[in-house]
Amino acid sequence: MSSLSQFSIGPHSLQVRQQGAGTPVLFVHGFPLDHQMWNEQFSVLGRSFRLIAPDLRGFGGSSIASGTVRMEDYADDLANLLDAMAIREPIVICALSMGGYIAFQFALKYRAKLRGLVLCDTRSAADKPEAAAGRLKTADQVLAEGPTALADGMIPKLFGPAALKDQPEIVAQTRQIILKTSREGIAAALRGMAERPDVTSALPNLDVPALLICGSEDVITPAKEMATVAAALPNARFVEIQGAGHMSPLEAPAEVNLALTEFLATI
Ligand code: MLT
């Protein structure tokens, strides 16, 4: 059975879903979502591992964020969360997209705490200036008008064509999560993503065992770009999930869970 609890991290409070016992696997959600995007992984992997899925600062049931939250700030929250949970052994991080930007910061700053790294549908590069400017504009728009336009714009890009047609429940659930996310939390993350560093030059020194997963139909972080990231990492395997879009763990849980299980058995 899984449980939901709150942990105090300095002035913030993070809601965390937990299940199981064994090697800790920390799931880091994408933007602008929450821990529920990992439901399909909890159904299967919770039998063999200690699964931990926080809502990042400003998302889900965690406390509201304001201003700018940098990717490094979220990574610090995760390290502090592990301390608050008295987890001392090295963990595996499994992260999607913005979660991946945060996981890179965690890996660079807290390498000793990391046993393995699973990156889904993400990239190592920073935003191009136009993309960063677009994020700042979107942040202002969400603060003024709420997240409806953001949800409308993102949903067709988050899912591949097959999921948009055949998996209406996960599409509707994801839309609801975006609509419930606080305006301030969305804006703070957008500003943080806009100023995130390019970590590509650090990849050759990131020697942690890594599994990279990407949907073949991902239009936000294309599989081709992820394959390049995998090739630059010294100890990484790349799995492309045929037919899935950006939300591969939700769209193709069986394939993603198999890749995850195989990876976790080797580290
Ligand atoms: C995400 O899924 O976390 C976002 O699409 C990442 C981004 O906007 O770069």
Describe the global form. globular
Q: What is the strand tally?
A: 8
Oligomer: single chain
- Small molecules held by this entry: D-malate
Helix content: 40-55%
> How far is the first residue's CA from the last residue's CA?
25 Å
User: What is the residue-averaged pLDDT?
Assistant: 97
Strand content is 15-25%
List the uncertain runs.
none
Count up the helices: 11
Q: Please trace the helix and strand order, writing H or E for each element.
A: EEEHEHEHEHHHHHEHEHH
Derived structural class: alpha/beta
C-alpha Rg, in Å?
Answer: 17 Å
- What's the main sheet like? 8 strands, mixed
Question: Taking strands numbered 1, 2, ... along the chain, how are they ordered across the largest sheet?
Answer: 1-2-4-3-5-6-7-8
Report on the structure:
With 267 residues, this protein is α/β, with parallel strands linked by helices. The chain has 11 helices and 8 strands. Strands 1-2-4-3-5-6-7-8 form an 8-stranded mixed β-sheet, with helices on both faces. α1 crosses α11, α4 runs antiparallel to α8 and α5 packs antiparallel against α7. Bound molecules: D-malate. The site of D-malate has 7 residues, from loops.
Short description:
The chain is an alpha/beta fold and 267 residues long.
Features:
single chain, binds D-malate, eight-stranded mixed beta sheet, 267 residues, 45% helix, alpha/beta
Strand-helix topology:
Elements: E1 3-9, E2 12-19, E3 24-28, H1 39-45, E4 50-54, H2 71-84, E5 91-96, H3 98-109, E6 114-120, H4 129-145, H5 148-158, H6 161-166, H7 168-180, H8 183-194, E7 210-215, H9 223-232, E8 236-241, H10 248-251, H11 253-266
Parallel strand pairs: 3-4, 3-5, 5-6, 6-7, 7-8
Antiparallel strand pairs: 1-2, 2-4
Bound molecules: D-malate.
D-malate (MLT) binds next to loops.
